[in-house]
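Hi R.,

Quick one: here's the Olfactory receptor 6V1 sequence you asked about.
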Amino acid sequence: MTSAGFNVTSSLTLVGFSSLSGHSSLLFFVFLLLYLFVLFSDSLVIYIICSQRALHRPMFTFVASFLLNSLTASTLIYPKIMSDLLLSGAGLVQVSRTLCLCQGFFVSSLGGASFMLLSAMAFDRYLSICYPMHYAVLVTPAKVVQMLLLCWMLPSILVAASMLLASRLPLCRVQLNRLKEVFTHVKRLLSCRRDS
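And here's the predicted structure, written out as tokens:
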């Protein structure tokens, strides 16, 4: 379909996966082991923090939230990579524009939440070290919940706004040779310009 003189498509072809077709079984096994390790280790630590009453403190709440963020991101990324590795042996991997935008939203918002959670953990440690006598007053459970909501919601809102704007732009390139191009050249990928 064409729009204003540009070729607009609804899917991307990931050409880079076809070069990995000889090693796709090995890479699938490596990614499966990594994914299972992340699932097991993060779930175990979250379970221990939730089950032990002595660990119900702000510092461990932030650690559990950070691990939950890691678990969510891993669940969004690893299965998609593994399925693409399996499909790369059959030919080129096609990704719909909607899936590309959704995955970009989740990866970006969870990445931003990771940085904000690390900042909140650092701020919590700063208050506990520099103001030990006032720590219980400064860091209440209600304030911890507010900080966690801020850490999770602010990146999601900011990324949603940018993804909404990006979804309105036409998709100009249909083949990506490297996965790096999706994240580093998003503007060039989505914005079509007329050469005068």
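The first helix runs from residue 24 to 51.

Cheers,
M.
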